[in-house]
Each structure stands twice: as structure tokens, then as C-alpha cells.
Amino acid sequence: MATDTYTIQIRQRGVVTLPNALREAYGLGEDDVLTLVDLGGTFVLSPRVPVVSKLARSIEKKREQSGVSVEELLDDLYQNRHGKE
């Protein structure tokens, strides 16, 4: 794996812009959260993907692909919890 180096600049109020190539390569966008680790003056940034949001997107995509409505899922859930009539 090659190591790429980018030069970035700290703007007003500490704002840093990640290069577009990195944002596109890793699917990063506005409001995404990153973790910054200070290794004694060497900074490491890594994306922090909330697990719940990622799972919700995956479930929604599969639901849409299957053609099942939210109402059908909720009805099936209710029937499974309360016994089918």
C-alpha cells in the first residue's frame, strides 16, 4: 500500500479541509465524524462510522430491494410478538 502525502492548511477557527480525492476515496461527506489521535505530535485521522447509522442504511436498502413496505414489516413484527391470528 502506497503512502500518499497531502498538504492542508488550518483556517479560521481551526477548520481543516480534507482533499477531495480522500473524501471521494473513502466516501466522506459533510457531518461525517473523524477521530483524531495525537501520537506525540503526529496526528492520525480516521473515519468514525456510527454502527447504528450504517446498519440502518443497509437494512433500508435491503427493504427497498425486496419491495417490502415499512407497514408490512411492522405488521409482521406485531404478529410475531403477539401470535398470528
From TrEMBL:
SUPFAM superfamilies: AbrB/MazE/MraZ-like
Name assigned to this protein: SpoVT-AbrB domain-containing protein
Organism taxonomic ancestry: Bacteria, Bacillati, Bacillota, Bacilli, Bacillales
GO molecular function (one): DNA binding
InterPro entries: SpoVT-AbrB_dom, SpoVT-AbrB_sf
Domain SpoVT-AbrB: 8-53
Organism name: Alicyclobacillus ferrooxydans
Coiled-coil ranges (or none): none
Pfam families found in the cross-reference section: MazE_antitoxin
